[in-house]
Amino acid sequence: MGRFASSVRSHLLETFSGEPDGTPKWVKKIEGGDDIGFFGPGSAPWAVHGGMATMVAGIRALLMQTLHPGAMAGVHDWSRYKEDPLGRLAGTIQWLITITFADTGLARAESARVSGFHERVKGAYIDAQGVERSYSAGDPELLYWVHVVFTDAFLGCHETWGAPIPGGADRYVSDWAIAGELVGVVNPPRSENELRAAMHQFNVDGILKHDERVEETIAFLRRPPLRRSMIPFYRVLFAGAVASIPEEYRRVLGLKRPWWPAVTLTRVILGILRLLLGPSSTSEDAARIRIARISSAS
Hints:
The chain has helices at residues 2-17, 44-49, 54-65, 69-78, 85-101, 104-118, 140-161, 168-182, 192-204, 212-222, 231-244, 247-253, 262-277, 282-297, and strands at 122-126, 132-136. By secondary structure, the protein is mostly helical.
């Protein structure tokens, strides 16, 4: 059992970080810098993004992102998620963790790196009304959609499986709006009500769409190329992600809430994963080293 736990732990660390010991090289950069960062200890983003529920939130965010045909076209045409799904996951984690825990200079640089990559993402798609439209990753509507579904997923999953958020949901939405602005989102939501209204408006306006590309991505997310030992854990987390999505959007996705207690079993799996991975976060530890250095220098 000890050997099995060690094997699962090693694969988990490599899956989420790209490194067997769970510490990618870019984490070391978080120790550098001259300020606390955009957030800091005790902030809502530190609490949400340092929690285990992020493992489910990532799945939920990707499922929701597929519903905008422009965003789906960008993923379909440009993403390497099928060829290198773990590499794409590691890149997303790098952005999330850097914005959350790094100093403001590194956070801005990471956002510029992501925005630079997006500059070449262009193409065309068929919207929900059957009209062909051009798209680019820098389109205000697409940036806004990706930001709101990301924020919603991490907030919703943490509220379901995490500890209380410092300052509550409104504080998290308001704080994380900074991350949206860093990549070009105009006037992101600043409260939970604004966030829910923004997402609902996309559906009311008939922008969201279910098609074969959505089906293809859901099928991939349902059965990603993970080691056999990871599949039972992942299946529960996927079901938990689906169960956590509001019915309004599950209907568009064509997904049903699992008949079995997916939320409860997800909580159990997250508890097991916490035991396997340990309570400490290398990125948060790196941030605290930076902050302690700044405090002692002042």
